[in-house]
């Protein structure tokens, strides 16, 4: 809350500098973003380098929001390798202290707008089947994503990957 008691606007900004990319990576890898901190080695690499790649590759989009100079939310999505109108939501997170304020919804809605503006047809995404990811699954389903399939033991033994899809245009 601002000193006047009104909430500061939630402004979504693209990563434009290496410093911003580093701040987004630090947020995504930090203790306040994801409830499950047991990253696979590949997730750690992705979370460290995807924000930087967004500065060099048009197919990688990384946005964030901050409050009081602190990153409080971020989203990374990529155009698929076929460049056929498909995108993949790779990562998004909202700081624990800022959840339940609609920030995740706003990031996802802005992503949908961007994809449609760029003639995108669909977005695929994924999450884990562990209980810690129930809120992510609910957010996807409330945003029109349909569950497609489960890949058992994908991340670690006993940890499956759930795939979701949302068609944006026909």
Automatic annotation (TrEMBL):
Record-level Gene Ontology MF annotations: acyltransferase activity, transferring groups other than amino-acyl groups
UniProt keyword terms in alphabetical order: Transferase
Gene3D superfamilies: 3.40.630.30
InterPro entries reported for this sequence: Acyl_CoA_acyltransferase, GNAT_dom
Pfam families from the UniProt entry: Acetyltransf_1
Keyword Chloroplast belongs to the record: no
Domain spans labelled N-acetyltransferase: 10-169
Classification via SUPFAM superfamilies: Acyl-CoA N-acyltransferases (Nat) (SSF55729)
Protein's name according to its UniProt entry: GNAT family N-acetyltransferase
Record organism: Paenibacillus antri
């Amino acid at each position: 809350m601002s000193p006047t008691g009104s909430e500061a606007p939630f402004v979504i900004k693209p990563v434009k500098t290496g410093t911003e990319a580093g701040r987004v990576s630090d947020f995504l890898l930090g203790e306040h973003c994801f409830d499950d901190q047991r990253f696979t080695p590949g997730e750690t690499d992705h979370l460290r380098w995807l924000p930087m790649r967004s500065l060099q590759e048009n197919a990688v989009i990384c946005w964030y929001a901050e409050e009081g100079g602190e990153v409080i939310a971020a989203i990374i999505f990529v155009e698929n390798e076929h460049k056929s109108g498909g995108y993949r939501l790779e990562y998004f997170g909202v700081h624990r202290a800022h959840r339940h304020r609609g920030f995740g919804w706003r990031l996802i809605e802005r992503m949908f707008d961007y994809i449609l503006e760029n003639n995108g047809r669909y977005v695929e995404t994924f999450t884990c089947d562990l209980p810690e990811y129930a809120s992510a699954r609910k957010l996807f389903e409330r945003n029109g994503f349909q569950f497609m399939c489960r890949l058992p033991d994908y991340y670690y033994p006993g940890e499956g990957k759930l795939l979701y899809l949302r068609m944006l245009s026909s």
